[in-house]
Amino acid sequence: MTGGRTSVVVADDSHFMRSVISDILETGGLEVVAEARNGREAVDAVRDHRPDVVTMDVEMPEMNGIEAVERIMADSPTPVVMLSAHTDENADVTFEALDKGAVDFFTKPGGEVSMEMSRLRDQLVEIVTTVAQVDVARSHGDESRSHAETGTAASYAADPTVIIGSSTGGPKMVERVLSELPLDADLRVLVVQHMPEGFTGRFAERIDARSAYDVREATDGARIGGGEALVAAGDSHMRVKNYRNGRLRVKLTDDPPVNSVRPAVDVTMETAAATVDDVLVGVILTGMGEDGADGICRIKETGGHTVAQDEATSAVYGMPKRAVETGCVDSVLPIGDVSAGVVDAITREVT
What we know:
Elements: E1 7-11, H1 15-27, E2 31-36, H2 39-49, E3 53-57, H3 65-75, E4 80-84, H4 88-100, E5 104-107, H5 113-119, H6 121-131, E6 161-166, H7 170-180, E7 188-193, H8 200-210, E8 214-217, E9 223-224, E10 228-231, E11 237-244, E12 247-253, H9 265-275, E13 280-284, H10 293-301, E14 305-309, H11 319-325, E15 331-333, H12 335-348
Parallel strand pairs: 1-2, 1-3, 3-4, 4-5, 6-7, 6-13, 7-10, 8-10, 13-14, 14-15
Antiparallel strand pairs: 9-12, 11-12
Helix pairs in contact: 1-5, 2-3, 3-4, 7-8, 7-12, 9-10, 10-11
EC number: 3.1.1.61, 3.5.1.44
GO molecular function: phosphorelay response regulator activity; protein-glutamate methylesterase activity; protein-glutamine glutaminase activity
Keywords: Chemotaxis, Cytoplasm, Hydrolase, Phosphoprotein
């Protein structure tokens, strides 16, 4: 930090966007120490200025955002927020940047950019400030496979459901947990990742490719049974509408944001707790804010089991911390043990 202020390098090939972003961050109390017109300049600026955080455009000449993130993580590990447009192509590239080490992303507005960016100022300042605190050089926990995949026969509870909530730093964590959940556990899985419209469909496709579960983006009225998962659609709350004979149905709504977000983890967890009468597990992974804390308590109050990711493996220990502070969390686990924690919960329920 420079003089106690969070220092930022702003990388974007548009002079206009660099100016808008820099003005917003400076007005929000951050210090922009350098601006870069392409990925190569961004890499050089990080090496020269050692900022606390970088905002990185996706598409840039000479070296794009993905290459720049990869170089930065190899040479001068620094937290990066990707700034991405609302397009399918940019969604794919943004997720690739997350794979390379970027912590989170923020979607650029369309239309009257300067007006919309001003409206989104507080959100941008908050996410850049939060991501700046992430220790990207730290190993994020045990990278070995969870012992949920031992292949040992287990007696699982009938028709279990798990609700997973996450935010900043969450996409890779969600992918890992889903990839490690055994298909023979026959779970119904609902995922609420704070993510804008236009990205959740691609996110669901990525998880589907990495998991034995059938994963898709939620649509209004969608139903799932065992071995299936839904990812809450961006900009819509996902409510559990009904549950019969092991099949769960959701309803999407555009009700006002809860905890300043939509979709909100609390909405899905609270409606699941009120509706699902079989085994229910709630999981809170990395993220900023307090979304999911109330939902975890609702699940606990109905006899469900609750899990939170630990601080050491969380990119941002905000949501898990708030959940733990309620006293309603049964298990606090490193990311490598979360899927095993879910399996243990639904196995214990059999006895």
